[in-house]
Amino acid sequence: MKKVLLTIVVCFSVFVLHAKGTDKMEGESEKTARTVLVVGFEKENLQSNYYNPSQIAEKTGIKEDSLHYQFSEAIIKHLHQHSNFRLVEVEDYGNMSDFYRQVNYTRDDNEVYVDLSSYDQGQYQKLLKKYDANYFLFINSYKLSWKGEPFNTVFHIMNYSVFNNEKEKMYEGVAYFDAAGLTSLDELDKKYDKEARQIASRVKRSIK
């Protein structure tokens, strides 16, 4: 009887370990199969209804000519932490001028809609192939909306869109949070982390 029980226990343990290993392999395979290239917004799409670029630079401690890059990175670095798909970022934004020039924007108050219909299909495929990506996440704009007295509240509003490898839009959304005044981005790290978690979840659902 003891031998039978021992055999059952051993067999069950092997089954559990095999199941866990299979789940892990499937998870890693799924993550590898879905690669998303993320691109931040261009300089002109960091906007505000109150602050000009020099004021933003002064209050955040960021050089004016790198504001757009640092604001993009504030959310993208947290996307890397929460994405259960492979996320890669454009290495050289200096080579993205053709892309930015061909994006079509539609603005509606705090929301910005984009489409890539004017972006050359060949260039698009070449860009994705360079990073072995099959989806494209575009953080297309960032707005600092000041609401004034009595609380001096600033809303950080980020618009983003997800496209497949045929430039078809899979999802578009808005992420935002509020802060007391305009401060350094490091002080907002937890808020960026929370929004990145939600964005990653929505991107995951859109690329299934």
Mind explaining what this structure looks like?
The chain is of the alpha/beta class and 208 residues long. It has two domains: 33 residues; 172 residues, Rossmann fold (3-Layer(aba) Sandwich), CATH 3.40.50. Strands 1, 2, 3, 6, 7 and 8 form a six-stranded mixed sheet that branches. A two-stranded antiparallel ribbon has the order 4-5.
What CATH architecture of the largest domain would you give?
Answer: 3-Layer(aba) Sandwich
What is the H/E order? HEEHHEHEEHEEEH
The level of helicity is: 40-55%
**Beta strand %:** 25-35%
- Low-confidence blocks of residues: 4-32
- CATH fold-level assignment of the largest domain: Rossmann fold
SSE layout and pairings?
Blueprint: H1 2-33, E1 35-39, E2 46-48, H2 53-60, H3 67-82, E3 86-89, H4 97-102, E4 104-108, E5 111-115, H5 121-130, E6 135-148, E7 153-164, E8 169-180, H6 189-206
Parallel strand pairs: 1-3, 1-6, 2-6
Antiparallel strand pairs: 4-5, 6-7, 7-8
Give a short overview:
The N and C termini lie far apart (49 Å). Helices cover 43% and strands 29% of the residues.
Characteristic terms for this protein:
alpha/beta; 2 domains; 43% helix
